[in-house]
Amino acid sequence: MTERTNKEWLTALRGPEADQAISDLREILIRGLHYALSHNGELDSLIEDFAQDALLKILDNLDNFRGESKLTTWAQKIAVRVAYTELRRKRWKDISIEDLLPEDSGSDFTPAVLTDPKSSPERSASQKMLLELVEQLIQESLTPRQREAIMIVMVGGMPLDEAARRMDTNRNALYKLIHDARKRLKQELLSQGFTTDELLAAFETPEM
Questions:
Q1: What domain range is 54 assigned to?
Q2: CB–CB of 138/147 below 8 Å?
Q3: Phi-psi region of 171 (alpha: psi -120 to 50; beta: other; left: phi over 0)
Q4: Which of 9, 94, 97, 119 is the most buried (most CB within 10 A)?
């Protein structure tokens, strides 16, 4: 394969004989993805699909390439991001939002922090009291949309991009929704007499 400068890549990819340049770039992306995903041999059958999806994104964003690195390096980074985004999506494919939302009664609102074996009985009791109050505030103080976002992302652990897709919104809008919900919960907790230091102390990571 002929080595190209950034300028030569851009000219070739935009030119009348772009097919060869696209084919060359696709080969580079496939090699790079094989290396990046080498820890999981089961993904070999998906790599060509990842490369094809990445090519479409790369070609659509050629005007955004600033030339701060080699074009092939820039393209490979896009391909890896595309691959990991798709892998996260596949991981959550069979999990519905409803699976992450609590039932109306008898639901267990217990984040992993409460299952930490290093937590003292006093600390666990304090956390449990706070969580019971947080659960109540989530149900009573947040909008349905805020409640859904908090439960599937903050409690359920669904990645932000996947949650945004499921909720028919975008990443920035979902981030703002969660930010506003957390701000509201914090205000409500403070109004209940808890201090910021108490909240941080109850949920900080225990020292090893």
A1: 6-92
A2: yes
A3: alpha
A4: 9
Instruction: Tell me how far apart the alpha carbons of residues 22 and 26 are, in angstroms, rounded to a whole number.
Output: 6
Last residue of a domain, one of 92, 111, 132: 92
Burial of 35-52, coded b for 16+ CB within 10 Å and e otherwise, reads: ebbeeeeebeebbeebbe
Are 82 and 142 in a shared domain? no
Rounded to 10°, the helix 44-60/18-36 angle is 130
Enclosing H/E stretch for 151: none
Tell me: do 87 and 117 sit in the same domain.
no
Could you tell me how many residues make up the chain? 208
Please give the C-alpha separations between residue 54 and each of 4, 72, 111, 150, 200, in angstroms, as whole numbers. 20, 12, 36, 31, 42
Residue whose tokens read 């809008």: 173
Residues 85 and 106 both lie in one domain: no
pLDDT at 22: 92
Report the pLDDT averaged over residues 60-89: 87
Alpha carbon distance 126, 131 (integer Å) = 9
The model carries a pTM of: 0.49
Domain harbouring 72, CATH code: 1.10.1740
